[in-house]
Amino acid sequence: MLNKLIANILPYMPKKLVWVFSRRYIAGESIDEGLLASKLLNQQNIEVTIDLLGEFIETLEEAEANKIEYLQIIERFTSENISGNFSLKPTMFGLLIEEETCYRYIREVVSLAAGKNSFVRIDMEDSQCVDREIKLFRKLHREFPKNVGLVVQSYLRRTLSDLESLLPLHTENTPLNFRLCKGIYIEPEKIAYKKYDEVRAHYLEDLEFMFKNKIYAGIATHDQYLVENAYQLIEKYQVSKSMYEFQMLYGVTPELRQSIIDRGHKMRVYVPFGKQWFNYSTRRLKENPKVASHIIKALFIRG
Q: How far apart are CA 163 and CA 11, in angstroms?
């Protein structure tokens, strides 16, 4: 109860206080800090996906600035031979303002990544964005089938049918590449599963569909139950190690992460950085109010 109260209050507290929590989950504000975190992870045999923080912008000027920064990020990270790829949120490129401009800006980003033999993941956002983001993915996939992927969320009731509808894009030479996560946005029960066990069950149903159809699976979870069940599905369908990876957020469940690596599975860590860290951090806290106890300890220890 106390943790939940702190989680709800913290977004209204001074940023310096929120940073006590955030520094564990954010690589930093600058490209240099993102690079350093990525190099350290690479040294641990962990690949990365790089994410510039920001979402739901209000002007196309912001969208253009974000595009320019992403182009700089791709140039920098590929020139320094970081083992990883890139993730982006379409709302920071103006998805809800002007779809065609959003597409043009993201196409520039994907085109540069493709030219560097890299890959861009289109993040899935809240329900108002899902149809738009699937449409965007389809359009980009036609031109860059090996260089663009999508996120799907198991808590949405529509996800399995979305996977089925995208299957015609799948080929043996250019397999679809999806990150499967539970989903974090607050949605009405009409469109989203609410019960914990229900979301888990549909996560495994979606993952099994991906394995059955030889879709590349980014198994994005910090839930040990889902990890153990993913192992069983990998064994059941004899999935090649070239056709899946586990994915986790920066700073989250490092012990579970290491146990997956120790068993010989590929791991990728989502490395977020940028000046827009505040909203990301407070959302993480609302998802997991138990983290509030760590904040109290940190404040107490530091006086």
A: 35
